[in-house]
Design goal:
3 helices; mainly alpha
């Protein structure tokens, strides 16, 4: 049996069969290689697209961070201005209150003419 197999493969048909099997295997491997190369190319294109989107997102984040920082600065300046205005207003209110207290004290200490005193006493 083994002798027949050896004789078969030594003959022309056996050699053609082996060559056919090897050629078919090479062709199948070539097709698989082409398929894998095409898939690799698609993946590389996908990666390029995703990298571009990632870059755009990073730029958008950087712009947003810059805008947020600017808004924080504006808000901080606003709060500082608000505090300054509140202090100034408080000082002015204190000055007015002190002025009114002085005028009130002066008016109470003041001697009124008799005619005004008589009018005030008549009403009470």
């Amino acid at each position: 049996m083994i002798e027949r197999i050896i004789i078969f493969f030594r003959g022309g048909i056996g050699k053609l069969l082996i060559i056919g099997i090897v050629a078919s295997s090479l062709y199948i491997m070539k097709m698989q290689l082409d398929t894998m190369q095409a898939k690799l190319l698609l993946k590389e294109q996908e990666i390029a697209i995703l990298q571009n989107k990632n870059k755009q997102q990073h730029e958008a984040i950087n712009r947003l961070l810059a805008f947020t920082q600017k808004q924080d600065e504006v808000l901080t300046n606003y709060e500082q201005d608000k505090e300054k205005i509140a202090k100034t207003l408080q000082q002015k209110e204190n000055i007015i209150r002190q002025y009114n207290d002085e005028k009130s004290q002066n008016w109470k200490k003041q001697n009124l003419p008799d005619t005004i005193l008589s009018v005030l006493n008549a009403k009470s």
